[in-house]
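User: We ran a pulldown and think these components assemble together. Before we commit to crystallization trials, I'd like a predicted model of the whole complex to look at. Sequences follow.
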Amino acid sequence: MTAVAARLRPLTGHRLFWPALVLVVMLAANTVYRPGFLAVEVKNGHLYGTPIDILRLSAPLILVALGMTLVIATGGIDLSVGSLCAISGAIACLHISGAADQNSPATVATALALAFGAALVLGAWNGVLVAVMGFEPIIATLILMVAGRGIAQLVTEGQIITINSGPYRAIGLGHFLTLPLAILIALAAALLVAAFTRRTALGLIVESVGGNAEASRLAGIRSRRIVFLVYVISAACAALAGFMVTANVSSADGNAAGLWIELDAILAVVIGGTSLAGGRFSLGGTVLGALIIQTLTTTVYAMNISPQTSLLFKAVVVIAVCLVQAPAFRARLRRRRRGTEPGPAAPQREKEQVPA
Amino acid sequence: MTGNRPVLTMTGISKTFPGVRALHDVDFRLFPGEVHALMGENGAGKSTLIKVLTGVYGTDAGVITLDGEQVSFSGPMQAAAAGVSTVYQEVNLCTNLSVAENVFIGREPRRLGAVRWGEMRRRARDLLARLDLDLDVSAPLGTYSLAVQQMVAIARAIDVQARVLILDEPTSSLDAGEVAQLFRIMRQLRDEGIAILFVTHFLDQVYGIADRITVLRNGTLVGEYRTEELPQFSLVEKMIGQELDVLERLDEQQKRATVDTADEAPLVDADGLGRRGAVAPFSLRIHAGEVVGLAGLLGSGRTEVARLIFGADRADHGQVRLDAGRAPVRNPIQAIGQGVGFCSENRRAEGIVPELTVRENMILAMQAARGWLRPIPRRRQDELVRRYVEALSIRPANPELPVRNLSGGNQQKVLLARWLITEPRLLILDEPTRGIDVGAKAEIQKLVVQLSDGGMAVLFISAELEEVLRLSHRVAVMRDREMVAQLDNDDTLDADRVMRTIASGTTRKEVTR
Ligand SMILES: Nc1ncnc2c1ncn2[C@@H]1O[C@H](COP(=O)(O)OP(=O)(O)OP(=O)(O)O)[C@@H](O)[C@H]1O
Ligand SMILES: [Mg+2]
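Assistant: Here's a predicted model for the assembly, 869 residues in total across the polymer chains.
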């Protein structure tokens, strides 16, 4: 047992190991419950099946969570992403609904550009509040979280705007190369953010600011600019997610679009192994985290668990995932095992963090 | 005292971190009523041994007994409850809580469950008075200097009714006066029968107070000795594991010849620089190739001077310029842009980014100066890092380890490397040898001499007056947050005269150059 543990250490020590394992276990459990769960078939040249659905439905969450990862890595948090989804979706749908030809690509492109621009401005607002005015991130973004729903309502004038636009619908439901377009958009965004942070020094600087803000300042890092930037990036990601959410249903509902997505996004980031305290972040972990949450949601639906219990069920799974990842908890488990079966045991990890 | 039974024994202790064997089969024992020094180079395993003892880390092997009974603590709280009170190397207090709260956190005086704040403040004041410290105990701890924070941590530790007191480099940022005060209390506690484990890199302190010495090298036990049976040079040899002339090397450095800079334009010109509540306006010029030392007691404003020159704090009086004519320096970014580096004394709060690797920590300042859009090519990073890991003999020599896994002294070297990599024209070193072992200290002092010979200006701050005198061309003396004198370090200047200047204030004439 000890030898196996030692052999597996490089694997189990990998930061993506636990989230990946959880995802695999959940998929396996689903397959046991419903043997056809993992089946994928080709219809009209497109792939269909529950795994594909999970991927497609998780696309907006992945997008929001990517931006959230960077914000959290700087030691902040962005609660306004749900409202930003609603606002960007509302603006895009409003523009399209007012156009003569809702199917014209030009109309859709203008709608997207308008909505995207608005989201960037609102992201900059968050950034200014946090980086320049020095608001606590949770307060600063809470403002837009609450006010943003109002803005979305203003845009839609309290109605649900329904549109009938092929190109816009495609963002949520279209296919490209047999795969749902949404998956490809989310994938592209993930690769873009990864390149943007890891090919430049942005990732390092973000981690440094989140890891020790004062040391970073004294090392000459322009923390304000960096913090400002991550809120803008987060808003941009939220806008894309907003397009997808509204495209899925071809309508913009200022109240419902992107509701509670900020909480799922924060969960996805944490499950993915990025600490809420800031510092090191993992985009791969975040994507896995988003997939775990979506799988969970799908599972809950598939098992016909009532909505009331489903939230509880979700909470239990999330707590379990977080515990499994916590070094303190793992050390305690290991110690308990050691206590009951004496003899040589695997080297113990540190139980508590006291710096050198 | 050897006759009685040890209060604490550690037998066959081993501890391995991934890739690093920190302790291997180490034995250690501690008798009641003794001060026992634990010695070894940076990374020898001293702090790890302490953390294994107090249960911060689990052991891979080995037995610990307290009063003859086998124990295995789950953490510092449990250890403290069993009578083992510890001050860790990195002061680990809450800077946003008050001084009094920090002293009593976790064991506040209570009545019916409610904290008795008045009682707590009164007791905190009494306790600090024992250490000769007069503080506003309701002020946040963060408003006090690192040295004061260290004293508060010590006060907290000695207040617990402990049988074993462990002090891991408690004196690293203290001045002679505080050290003397601390030693007085340590002797008093020792005479009461308390066993004290003491870690330091200051050899004279070891010989001043320790009854017995245990030496570690590379995670293994070299031996246990009675202090009077182990002359200083053999102690050093046992620590570094070879017959080296480190001590001679330390002595061989002669007093620096004063550089003749009278007619040259100064590199740095601080003109009436000051900040209310921190330091009174002062003027200081530093020439290229010159080392200026800052001397003064704890809280005299040395660090504040450094921070103002670097722009870390905003000056509300005067300004500082590099190369007369350029814009004054107002913040760290401008300072770094004009070629200033600042190695802070507080490496945990203001220095390292713990999760980042050694490499990332080293290149941080250089990368910040280039901006995030122009990453330093990986090959260049590796090359720079390799050079400085070697030059400063950083152990373990693995640049991809998170810097928090390094021993305290090695973290300090990483910070030094961060600034050397930027090739500054003025390097401000605030306690750069804090927590660094004898050998490495000599290396760093040599490095400072080399750098200044190569034209770098250095502002050198150290609580150790000898070190300041050995390296500086000129010594600026601080008293009560005021720069009271600037003395040329010629043949007439010695520690005595500096101390007199600090104490008296008669040499008030400002030698502005
Ligand atoms: N948490 C950790 N993870 C991995 N390695 C560690 C950890 N803590 C310490 N080490 C390693 O263990 C060795 C011993 O470190 P330790 O901190 O005990 O040294 P030390 O003797 O206290 O040195 P110093 O005088 O610099 O404080 C070092 O090589 C260090 O890098
Ligand atoms: Mg140490």
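The two ends of chain A are 32 Å apart (CA to CA). That may be worth checking against your pulldown data before setting up trials.

User: Thanks, that helps.
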